[in-house]
Each structure stands twice: as C-alpha cells, then as structure tokens.
Write a structure and sequence with these properties.
The structure holds two protein chains of two kinds. Chain A is an all-beta fold. Chain A contains no helices and twelve strands. Chain B is mainly β.
Chain lengths: 114, 117
C-alpha cells in the first residue's frame, strides 16, 4: 500500500521568506500527487496536483511543486510567503489507474509571522 | 453553488452511545468519501461510495462503523458503542468521478468533530 511522509510538522517563517515543504511517498508504480491546504476555520481544498507531463506544476496563490520520480518526492515551494499563507498543508498520493482512494500525509503547519 | 455540508459540526457522546453523522454532497456528485482525521494526523480513508454502491469499506476500523448512502445522495456514517479512540474529525468529500479509472477533484466538507467522553 502507498504511504506519504511529511518531515516538517511545524514551520515558522517571516513574511517574504521562501518556503519548501518536503513530501515523500512510497509506491513503486505510477502515482498521482496532490497538495491540499486547510486555512484556519476553512475546508480542506486542493492547492495543486500532478498527473503526468511537466514535473513542475503550478497551483493557486503562487505555489508550485516539483515531482522527482527518482527521489519519490513532491516538494511544495513558494518563493515569498505571505501572512495569509498561514495554514496546514497536506501532501497526498493516489495510485494512477486505481480508483479514487487518496492517501494523505500527516500535514505541516505553516505559521507566517508578519 | 453550495459545497459539501456536514452535520452536526460538533458532537459529544458518552462512551457506549451510538452516533450518526450526516453528509450532504454537492448536487450531482457521484462519488462520496468518508475520512477520519485524528488530532495531529492527516485524513485517513474510511469508505467510498459510487452512487448508492459502497465500493470500498476497507478503511472502517471496526464493525462498529457503518456507512450508507441509500439513494445515492446523502450519506450517513454511524458509529455504534462509541469508544474514546473514536474521537476525531470525520470528513466527507464528494467528486464528479463517474469511472474508477478517472479522477476528479474531491471537494471536502467542514467535518464533524466527535468527542467521546
């Protein structure tokens, strides 16, 4: 079965700092990869996804993620964070060609200090 | 349009009580998922419906957990004889996905926070 590891549980950054959140998955086959975000008091929502093609994917609000197959990684990046990026971020994986089941990581809480 | 709604938003139960959690998916969404999110953890898959058919219930932690979606719309997750370890946020998600091989974005509800005393 697939699994997802997020190594940073809590990250604190000042505004304008650069962000990189690590995500590694374990599954030997083809996968679809996702980053979800949960802002305080809001629903979990999709930030970006990778299915195929260009391994560098861009999502909403200036976020991007790079799929590195050889490293089983899908790290999330943003060049300059804002206070409004304070949220919890979840990496997730789905087995490509399988059905809809998505496996989530444990999440990373990001706190951006003004 | 309206998103996924869940009720109640908060539920406190005494150990041993039965609870029922409701999910109203986005209208027209075929697929419906239940997840359990314990404190400090990511959502963990419980079960999946396509219309009224429960295609996967492999994530249900015990036979005390039961989910149904009799008319292919609203779904109820029932937990019998609740235990303290059942305390968690229960999330519902729905998607347009019609086929098992394609993927459509899952839209999540706000969750029901269950506390078992």
């Amino acid at each position: 079965a697939q699994s997802v590891s997020q190594h940073n549980h809590h990250v604190i950054l000042s505004e304008a700092a650069s962000l990189e959140l690590g995500c590694n998955y374990s599954y030997g086959g083809t996968v679809n990869l996702f980053w979800y975000v949960q802002y305080p008091g809001q629903h979990l929502q999709l930030l970006l996804k990778y299915f195929s093609g260009d391994p560098l994917v861009k999502g909403i609000k200036g976020f991007e993620a790079e799929f590195i197959k050889s490293k089983f990684s899908f790290n999330l990046r943003k060049p300059s964070v804002q206070w409004s990026d304070t949220a919890e971020y979840f990496c997730a994986v789905r087995v490509s060609g399988g059905y809809q089941k998505v496996t989530f990581g444990t999440g990373t809480k990001l706190q951006v200090i003004p | 349009g309206a998103g996924v709604s869940q009720s109640p938003r908060y539920k406190v139960a005494k150990r041993g009580q039965d609870v029922a959690l409701r999910c109203d998916p986005i209208s027209g969404h075929v697929s419906l998922f239940w997840y359990q999110q314990a404190l400090g953890q990511g959502p963990e898959f419980l079960t999946y419906f396509q219309n009224e058919a429960q295609l996967d219930k492999s994530g249900l932690p015990s036979d005390r957990f039961f989910a149904e979606r009799p008319e292919g719309s609203v779904s109820t997750l029932k937990i019998q004889r609740t235990q303290q370890e059942d305390s968690a946020v229960y999330l519902c998600a729905s998607s347009l996905a019609l086929a098992s091989l394609s993927y459509n974005e899952q839209f999540f509800g706000p969750g029901t926070r269950l506390t078992v005393l």
